[in-house]
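Hi R.,

Here's the chain you asked about this morning:
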Amino acid sequence: MFVALFAGSRIPGLLPSNFSAAYAFAFCAGVYFPRKNSWWLPLAVLLVTDIGLNLYYSAHGVEVWDAANLANLGFNYAAYAVLIFLGRRFRPQASFTALLGGGLLGAILFYLITNTASWFFNPFHNPEYAKSISGWLLALTRGVGGYPSTWEFFRNTLLSGGLFTGLLVAAAKLTAAAESPADKTAGAHDEEAEEKAEEAKA
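And here is the predicted structure, written out as tokens:
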């Protein structure tokens, strides 16, 4: 369900700019996916959908394969990894409020990391993005002329992070509530066994 919701949210033009399920998807993958899948599966889905988006935008005349833009995209994956790591710090049994707060924190971290990367790599060669503290603050607040301010992107990032995290957490908790006691116990034992196996390897 998580994978399908995320993939659908990336259809070009379906959602406003920076309004995406990606932040919630990465965070909730860390919370709910089994340990062995919580890293490679969400990152693989993100990579496949990013390649698809790049092909789409390239076909419409947008330069997306240059080194600066790819380096900038690489920082997106660093941010996604941070969100997965953050999700791994939560247990699925945590309260709805705690998980929602984690998802919102993840969205904030994503915004800070990716906008810092946009300022540093400056893939579209914006002259406003001087390599200085003032240039960095500009990238985090106003952005460049001719485009919506980065505060609007932050608003959409925060709103979508909260909305999709809330939806995914609510769906997961409703599904867990419908499970039989035996299923819940089995799942808890599986997770505990995975954690002990990882600790033994370390």
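One quick note: The chain has a mean pLDDT of 85.

Cheers,
M.
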